[in-house]
User: What shape does this take?
Amino acid sequence: MEPSGGDGEVATKRAKPSSDDAGGGGGEDRLSALPDDVLVLILLRLLTPAAAQTSVLSRRWRRVWALLPDLRFLCASDPHRIGAVLDAHEAALLYLFVETRDAVAGSAAAWLPAAARRVTGRLLFHNLDEGGGAQEDGDEEIFELPCLESATSASLHLGFLGLAVAPAGVFARLTDLSLARVRLHRPGELGDAVSSPRCPSLQKLTVRESRGLGNLTIHSDSLQQVELHDLHGLQQLSIVAPALQVLDVMKCFYHDHNQLVASISAPQLVTLVWIDDPRVPSSVQLGEMEHLELLGLSLYLVYGLQDSTLNRACLSFLRRFKVIEDLILTLAYLPKIDNYQYLMEDMTMLPDITFLRLIVLTNGHAFGASAFHVLRMCSGIRRLLLAFPATDVEAQKTCPSGCICGDQHNWETDQLLLNCLQEVEITPFRGSEHEVTFVKQLFDWATVLQKMTVTFDYSVTESMAKELCLVLRNFSRPEIRMEFYMDGGRFKVLSAPED
Assistant: This one.
């Protein structure tokens, strides 16, 4: 659980106890003699229900809990009680956390209006949907998110409760809004609520796993970061945000076959991650982005059907930018590729790149030719991250004999000079024949390489890792610093010897 705000923000009164304030017994009550702000610090170590129960100790303790700047309700079963506690609370409420299990919309409506009146800091609501999303589309019960006039941050993980945003009111101080697992009603009003007229201070907007959000139109002068992940039903996306620096769109359009229309106007954008299938790339309109430094794109199929819509989308984005500091590019091999065509030749140009993050989903296939094709088009890179994430298919050391992935073999003899590449990171490294062969070639191509970092996959034992360290060191040169890690980098296997 997150801590509350600083001690200076606690609204307290340094009252001195009267002679009859001490409860029970005949002994001296030194604890009650402490000033309110010290007692508040003691009660902050308790969950809110336990802290409130101290009010029965004496008149001295009766209102101390109401001065807490931080209230927390875990696995709350009585939402009406939460509302009563909030109404009785006196201090500026800097942090409110409410956790429920399989709640219904009415239970959230029982306390959220009181929270909207009381919270001046962060509001966190987490509905644990252990019933597996029982509130899905068949249930029309909804609750309204009231206007949070004083809150600065709100994070609502709703377990697919039905939600409608208040149609009026100003979220005057809200800087951060996060909605997760939400089923929206009157969805157009979300865009209205987070735009500048009603949300003038909003800097970060996150929406994950939504249902019912078909249209999201935002006009904001303050937004700096937008993350949209897994928005089922989204068909129209329009963002006009002159201060926006980060836009992350992932898996928002895979689920539907309707035409997507997207328009982004963000001239100060620095990071654009678009991991999606826009089907018709021309329907995604991007304004001028002269400050863009990082671009992350959807999968590019190495083997597939000619004129793949997935590949066309990826190439369309690549053509829009001449210079990119940092490019995230994912090459994907389908498990079975014998009946497909080699598509790398369709990728004829890349932006001018300094840092390439090349992710290869190999499914056990030989990937050297496709990775070589990419590196040949960005030979001026200075840093390279080479990632081999696991796929759903069981990992193979080699693909089936006679697989067409071996037909593209000229890359091992063709010339390639990476005379600017100084740093390489490889993760997770499993030590397959294809991986070892490619790394060996990297040492030959990268003539000024200074450092290589290798993180072994969790499936690699320590003894196997040490053998692979020796193999890679034999390929290396004395001036290259080699570092090896295991299990996500938790501990180092071997590092470079002292000079």
